[in-house]
Amino acid sequence: MSTVRAIPTAALLAGLLLCGGTPRAADPPLAAVTIVGAVETVFTPKRDACDGDDVPDANARAFRDATGSVVVFAMHMKNRALRGPDLANLKIDCASPLPSQGDADPARYDDATWITATWTEDGRRIEALLHHEYRANTHPGRCTHKEYLACWYNTVVAARSMDGGRTFERASPPVVVAAPPFRQEVGQGRHRGFFNPSNIVAHGRHRYMMVSTTGWPGQASGPCLFRTADPADPTSWRAFDGKEFSIRYGDPYRSDAKPAPCRVIAPFPAPVGAIVRHRGTGAWLAVFQAKGDGGRFPQSGFYTTASRDLISWDKPRLLLAGPTLYDGACDSGGTLINYPSLLDPKAEGRNFDDVGDSADLYYTRLVVDGCKTTSDRDLLRRHVAIKVWP
Fold first, then answer.
1. Same structural domain for residues 261 and 272?
2. Which residues are the signal sequence here (predicted)?
3. For residues 343 and 335, what is the distance between their CA atoms, to the nearest angstrom?
4. Do 259 and 293 have their domain in common?
């Protein structure tokens, strides 16, 4: 096993990110995450749903509200929350804080939305980032293709709650945090845009997240790292260009700006499920899903990787093997696993962006019927042990 260098101080880490310095790649392994617990069911629609729209369909995001209660978003497009005194005792709230409107105008960014990242300082005012899908195939004349993925135009937009996540509102016009520098096209032919933001994490005076893109000419596909000093101002998010956090992605329906490409962060092949900071060492851990390729990802499933600076990550390690959505329903064998995240019930931060030497892996198990995914899905968790080398 390689010798691992000492972890930089918080000041040095902040300096690397603030000044845009790119440190040397980490010597693997920095950390190991191992499943040590049996499967527990957090939410199953057959038992817990308010109606047929309540299925797990996103990575679990959690915060503590002003009363100390826990709020978790992980559901489908009505964005109903799971609430309870702690992560072990959650029940669905049947009120919909941000229902999707199915708006046919892509410039209004209100077709199909998921609350996929949240941040709060006081548990009352909640900043949210929404994964927005403009599903052009559902709107006559908006897409020449019949396959829905060929018609998706994805963006990340902002919303805000002033009542602890009971209701959310968007600005008018919508505030776009991440969008490609072009509009939805009738003949686009493939999934395009920015999608699936990770959770938001704190480091010093800044907040960070990753957002994935399918790319375009000049822009590689994969996740990019974003930063802000003020999450209450969603226009302040900037993407990392390889040297500094300089890139502002605006609204292509209201601006003709052509921002520079963001730097794709390796080794992630697609969206990052969750990022957390290890309390004992300050190291960063990330969990994500990948399709087996016989190389970097020997098997399909969930992987973890670690970093000292959010930019350079070590060799991915398999956490849980199994076919994911990236494998396709036809190759599933009957079930898929998706949407991994890590939550520590003993997290010190209000936003559950830190972990100790143990945490829980949250994920969705999805039943497949032939070659079709179904709404038969359960939100599960398994206890994990975490080891970070000093």
1. no
2. 1-25
3. 23
4. no
CA distance to 157, 178, 257, per residue, from 109 (Å): 8, 12, 19
Position 69 in a domain: no
Residues 289 and 226 placed together within one structural domain of the fold: no
- Name the domain boundary from 222, 245, 265: 265
Residue 295, judged by CB atoms within 10 A of its CB (0-12, 13-18, 19+), counts as exposed
Q: How far apart are CA 99 and CA 302, in angstroms?
A: 30
Q: Answer with the one of 219, 247, 265 that is the final residue of a domain.
A: 265
* CB-based burial label for 335 (10 Å; 0-12, 13-18, 19+): middle
Over residues 24-65, the pLDDT tens digits come to 444 557 999 999 999 999 999 999 999 999 999 999 999 999
Whether the upstream peptide bond of residue 29 has omega within 30° of 0, thus cis, is yes
Per-residue pLDDT tens digits for 141-192 = 999 998 889 999 999 999 999 999 999 999 999 999 999 999 999 999 999 9
What's the CA gap between 130 and 352, in Å, rounded?
Answer: 18
Is 162 a member of any domain? Answer: yes
**Model pTM score:** 0.92
Closest to 333 measured CA to CA, from 370, 382, 381, 307: 370
DSSP 53: T
